[in-house]
Design goal:
The protein has one domain. It is built from 16 helices and 2 strands. By secondary structure, it is an all-alpha fold. A two-stranded antiparallel sheet has the order 1-2. Helix 4 crosses helix 6 and helix 13 runs antiparallel to helix 14.
Length: about 450
């Protein structure tokens, strides 16, 4: 056995931990979405309603696969006891009433915050407010039979909504504050990010559908830009479905939301209205550039290099979209909804952050500016480096949150032994420590 063999684990005896989501979920979601892409392009369906239909096109197949093939509803993490007969309605009615009260007041609070935030009534957010307002009445009505049905089957129906209901009723002695805070954090995540995701679906969809085929294939740059836009559309559709389907019978509920203020800060500064990277923001690194189109400007006279960079950017975007597709129906920021170990997560714990930041560096080329001012070059480069640092910060806070789950600790240990970067570092260390042969 040579030294290299000793260094590297044998994957036959060190299998990757099981993923909470199967590969098939994302695959059938992609198939459904691609079919709707094709139909929409043939008939020119580029409007917001077609964009919402795209969510159904990818979401329905994923739900069907999850229930019929993966049988996620049978997972012990749902908290549902399918083997025991349902409890009588009379035994859980008081619990359900308290839970419905807590749930409705939570939704009312989120609605009030939507009204207070002026950014929710401007630009792309207006569509999200229309969708959520339209859906509010059916959700209120359907929540009653859903909660009544679910509470009869849950092993412990007294969740965060129930504790909030007890607080509303003034029964503070029954309230577990930690469970209550978890309830608030989980709904804060869903309320904030779901509105944002719904707001950006129509724009991404329209850009993907309306581009003429002749224009798309007319030049490597236009082809690359369309492919990049299409993959961002895939990412947005899957992410939005993930925020919508936080349900226990699908085992897609939020098990915990990040309890650390640093994690929230690192995430929120990457999204409007708190985003710091947009024009006018303190971390805007686009001074004297063409944004993410700078690469095509600077490489205009180098067709082979331009084509190579185009392929690289499409590949990086593909990895970014793949990282979201791998979640199936469970994507959301700042939450734990099951540990993923398959797809790009078999290579790195943070494929989306790695690919996104590499994309920005390659696409923007912040050290090249049209102003010719070295100050702009330095500023852009330093600010983009700070942004990459923000995403490293996000990754660290997310890992700190997930480390509370033994499944994530097992995955993290496996990655430390088998991921490409740690293996490369071990090889380099072993090479530098190798004895120098005597002359």
């Amino acid at each position: 056995m040579n030294a290299e063999t000793k260094l590297e684990p044998d994957l036959r005896y060190d299998p990757r931990p099981k993923s909470a989501v199967s590969t098939g979920v994302g695959v059938v979601g992609l198939v459904g979405l691609f079919l709707w892409f094709a139909v929409s392009r043939v008939y020119g369906m580029q409007g917001p309603l077609a964009a919402l239909a795209a969510l159904l096109a990818c979401g329905v197949p994923m739900v069907a696969w999850s229930l019929m093939i993966d049988k996620v509803h049978r997972s012990p993490t749902t908290g549902i006891d399918w083997d025991a007969p349902p409890r009588p309605l009379s035994a859980t009615l008081d619990i359900s009433i308290a839970k419905i009260a807590g749930l409705w007041v939570t939704w009312a609070a989120i609605g009030c915050l939507y009204c207070i935030g002026r950014w929710y009534w401007d630009g792309q957010y207006v569509f999200a407010m229309f969708v959520l307002a339209f859906a509010s009445v059916p959700l209120l009505v359907l929540s009653v039979p859903y909660v009544l049905w679910l509470d009869r089957r849950l092993k412990d129906p007294r969740d965060g909504a129930w504790h909030f209901g007890q607080l509303i009723a003034g029964r503070t002695e029954r309230v577990d504050r930690e469970v209550l805070y978890e309830h608030f954090r989980s709904w804060a995540v869903k309320g904030f990010f779901m509105a944002f995701m719904i707001s950006i679906v129509p724009g991404n969809w329209a850009d993907t559908i309306r581009a003429p085929a002749a224009e798309i294939i007319g030049h490597p740059v236009t082809l690359a830009r369309w492919l990049i836009g299409a993959m961002f559309t895939i990412d947005v559709c899957f992410a939005t479905v993930g925020y919508v389907l936080t349900m226990k019978p699908l085992d897609a509920h939020i098990r915990s939301a990040n309890p650390y203020a640093a994690g929230w800060m690192a995430a929120l500064i990457c999204y409007p209205p708190f985003i710091l990277m947009n024009p006018g923001g303190p971390l805007n690194y686009h001074q004297g550039t063409f944004g993410e189109n700078s690469w095509s400007y600077w490489l205009e006279g180098y067709p082979l290099l331009m084509a190579a960079i185009a392929v690289l950017l499409v590949l990086l975007t593909g990895i970014y979209a793949w990282a979201t597709v791998a979640f199936g129906i469970r994507f959301s920021n700042l939450t734990h909804r099951g540990i993923l170990t398959h797809g790009p997560y078999a290579w790195t714990k943070h494929p989306a952050y790695v690919s996104k930041n590499l994309f920005w560096w390659v696409a923007t080329l912040p050290f090249l500016v049209t102003t010719g001012n070295p100050v702009d070059m330095i500023r852009n480069t330093v600010l983009l480096a700070i942004i990459s640092g923000v995403y490293y910060w996000r990754a660290r806070t997310e890992e700190r949150h997930l480390m509370a789950d033994p499944a994530y600790r097992e995955y993290a240990d496996w990655m430390e032994r088998n991921a490409p970067l740690p293996r490369l570092i071990r090889r380099l260390r072993a090479g530098s420590a190798a004895p120098v042969p005597a002359e």
